[in-house]
Amino acid sequence: MAALDMPEIEVREGVDRETVETVANMGSYKYGWETEIEMEYAPKGVSEDIVRLISQRNEEPEWMTEWRLTAFRRWQTMVEPRWAMLNYPDIDYQDQYYYARPKSMSVKPKSLDEVDPKLLATYEKLGIPLKEQAILAGIEGAEGAPAEGRRVAVDAVFDSVSLGTTFQDELAKAGVIFCSISEAIRKHPDLVRKYLGSVVPQSDNYFATLNSAVFSDGSFVYIPPGVRCPMELSTYFRINAENTGQFERTLIIADKGSYVSYLEGCTAPKRDVAQLHAAVVEIVVLEDAEVKYSTVQNWYPGDEEGKGGIYNFVTKRADCREARAKVMWTQVETGSAITWKYPSCILRGEGSQGEFYSIAIANNAQQADTGTKMIHLGRNTRSRIVSKGISAGRAQNTYRGLVTMHPRATDSRNYTQCDSLLIGDKCGAHTVPYIEVKNTSSRVEHEATTSKVDEDQLFYCRARGMDEEEAVALVVNGFCRDVLQALPMEFAMEAQSLVAISLEGSVG
Amino acid sequence: MPDSAVLDIMTPTVEGQGAPDPLAARLGALPDGGVTAPARADALSRLRAMGLPRPRDEYWRYTDPAPFTAATPAAQPVDPAAGDPPLFSDLDRLRIVFVDGRFDAQASDDLSMSGVSILPLSQAQAQPGHWVGAAYGQLEQAGQTPVARPFAALNTASATDGVVVHVTGRAEKPVQILYRRSGDAADVVCHHVLRLDAGAELTLLENGLVGARGNLLIEADLAPGAQLHHVAALRAGNPRVSLTHLFARLASGSTLKSFTLSVDGAHMRSEAVLDMAGDDVVAHVAGAMLGDGSQVHHDDTVWVTHGGLRGESRQVFKKVLKNGATGVFQGKILVRPGAQKTDGYQISQALLLDEASQFLAKPELEIYADDVKCSHGSTTGALDETALFYLRSRGVPRERAVVLLVLSFVADALAEIEDERLRDRIGERLEDWLTARASGVAG
């Protein structure tokens, strides 16, 4: 199989011209264009002064500045972890910008209407609706999806700042707070102070600690007791500036008996130099509450030779703090040159539940080391892990996961299924599960398989007139079905087309 | 490199200023190696370069290396009434006896057998030009990458004795290595070197009482079409600290099947490092382990590398744990680029018979070839109450029902023993142990 050769791009029926052109121009990454806009940068590098500057730009109170500085001092004593099966050159943390915002954002716009039209156009081009009257017609690629009545509130984060958040007033009527984290620190300091760092402590790990020091923006969600959030919430992260790291922080609190579904998307322009992204997501789930967190991660993956791309080091963790709390992580990881990401569940409350559904696709020179941790602390807790890893080109894809049943987590259950699919003979697929069972009434099952795309299935599809790439896409979609089904509908459509696009050029 | 220079590199990184070098304390005086002396010196340099494992090392995540690194093992009284275990005693076999890790000619059988040449290491290394000089430590050294195994290097450097076996044809009967001990605090280090020529066949049995702390190592080099069957059973009722390593290199068409039974004991780690270099290799490693008591910590660490085409590997490990025993499984299947049509299988299962026991597992796959079939599974849980109820409702007393269910749980691992007589012996041995302890289980 000529896995490394980019085949000629054939225009298939039903594929719109723009997509074909975009693909022709930049390989298979559709979001690699750049918004030309005047930017303001903090000086290069990271230091206590930079940390203070970020805090000052966000008009933060003193306690927040101190919180950041504590993290920064801690970070300076830490060593970057290298245990993942990832091979990348040393990152020069002083050779990049930690804060970049469009000049037009230096005076905070009162509403989205006042935001620079160029920025709004960026999101329009990305297919992200920032107009409240617009009913989401499906994210790009989802045309024709039945979308009646589904609305999504969006927080749009551009480099280091949030441009604005839609549907805030309507959400406020239901008591839901949805805003940027910088706004939350100013307007809801008590909530932020109570929960920030309570799931991912400042000293948690190298990248989370760096994030704690320099995070510039991100989203904040609070769902009050008994409220079912009236619409889906979402944050769309866009890195635009060159040589700039993005460090966002998301904090979601689901109070007793509440429910929210949260979506996250991200893209970046195509550049030759790798860029750092180190995010932290904290989710607090109280009694009987439920949070669904879905991600379609589509950062720029670098070119076929592995030049450029996002280095994605992310700490995501949910704490099911009280009885019967439930959290569900769903992720579709198709982008980034380097992925280091383990969305986790702490199942503390009795009868709490954690689920993790993941599709990780690595093509060309991409490397992904991703998985989850299910930490069972409470009685009668349940967790389920379904991970599908797909490797193509020269990519390396690793599932790394931990399931631990503490002595007090009696009568608990875990089921793990990780499957890997290899397309081509130059790539790698790896599985590194850790299983720790410290009580006997719990049951833990782990299964993993590794295989290649089934020749019989391919033959079947091809015999019915599909070309090889279509056939592979179909087989792969079947392989991923368990996970795709767990996604909210708009994302499922996008994810399905992403799965196909990410693998373009991997068969020939 | 002169030793002092190597030590200078080591000292500051290990313990800091003023602390004694734990390695020096652990080594003592090295034996005169004869033709193996250069290999022993190399092993010592390797060991100094890698240092002894520390508890934070990833490869020692679930097993504390301290009992293996301590300067001297805790004294363990010898039970004068305990004779040799009867496990293989009624089989027709060639018996080689080691007392406190040294060959005992009087107690051993005549070492001559058609198709096999056998010498104790202490004698072989004293013969100028003996082939063991070139072979000794080679597979151990190859098995040090990508993960360091310092205790194996320690073994190569300091082994007092062992057996050197060259199999040229089909061995007419099994060779049994029988360990005995005489002292309370013996630190036993044995290193066995097996060389199987093309098409040669050998069954190797290992059992007995090793010592208060054992460090046993086997290097097995299999030429095309050779077959090695290995069955080891370490002695019960002995609070032993034990480390074993099996390093095997498998040429095309060769077969290795290794099974280890482990009952009780204290702090144990058993490593198997199999290099399936040739095409059409078959390699199976299996183990059944029964542990009763909080002093029992048993670790099976396996690293199987598929380098050739159409290799078939199986890892089957079953652990039955009660009264606070800990079971560990670290298994790895590595499929190298080009090792197409690999069939790799790995299963690790634990049966926890009470709340105090625990099972810790890290079953890994690392795959660089696409036309392969690899799977692994790991389960942990308690006895199936429904099955127990079924048996009891049919008049089987609870204690007996537990024994039957545990036996059926470990049956898959036992099935890996090809020789029916050996399989039956091991099965009986397990049943005896379970029956004797059933009252505790049923509580």
Describe this structure as you would to a colleague.
The complex is a heterodimer of chains A (508) and B (443). Chain A is of the alpha/beta class and 508 residues long. Helices cover 22% and strands 32% of the residues of chain A. Chain A has one domain. Chain A has helices at residues 17-26, 48-57, 62-76, 117-126, 168-173, 181-187, 189-195, 206-214, 455-463, 468-479, 481-484, 489-502, and strands at 39-41, 100-102, 152-158, 161-165, 177-180, 219-223, 232-238, 249-254, 259-267, 275-277, 280-285, 290-297, 310-320, 326-333, 338-341, 344-347, 353-362, 367-370, 373-376, 382-392, 396-405, 413-423, 428-437, 443-452. In chain A, the strands form three sheets. Chain A has a ten-stranded mixed β-sheet with strand order 4-3-7-9-12-14-17-20-22-24. In chain A, strands 13-15-18-21-19-16 form a six-stranded parallel barrel. In chain A, strands 1-2 form a two-stranded antiparallel sheet. In chain A, strand 3 (152-158) and strand 4 (161-165) form a beta hairpin. In chain A, helix 3 (62-76) runs antiparallel to helix 8 and helix 6 (181-187) packs across helix 7. Chain A starts with 16 loop residues before the first helix and ends in a 6-residue tail after the last helix. The model of chain A is unreliable at 1-27 and 133-148 (pLDDT under 50). Chain B has 443 residues and is an alpha/beta fold. Chain B has a domain at 3-278. Chain B has a ten-stranded mixed β-sheet with strand order 2-1-5-7-9-11-13-15-17-19, covered by helices on one side. A nine-stranded mixed β-sheet of chain B has the order 3-4-6-8-10-12-14-16-18. In chain B, a hairpin with a 2-residue loop joins strand 1 and strand 2. In chain B, helix 9 crosses helix 10 and helix 10 runs antiparallel to helix 11. Chain B is globular, with a radius of gyration of 21 Å. Residues 1-19 of chain B have low confidence and may be disordered. The chains are: A alpha/beta (508), B alpha/beta (443). At the A-B interface, strand 22, strand 23 and strand 24 of A face strand 18 and strand 19 of B.
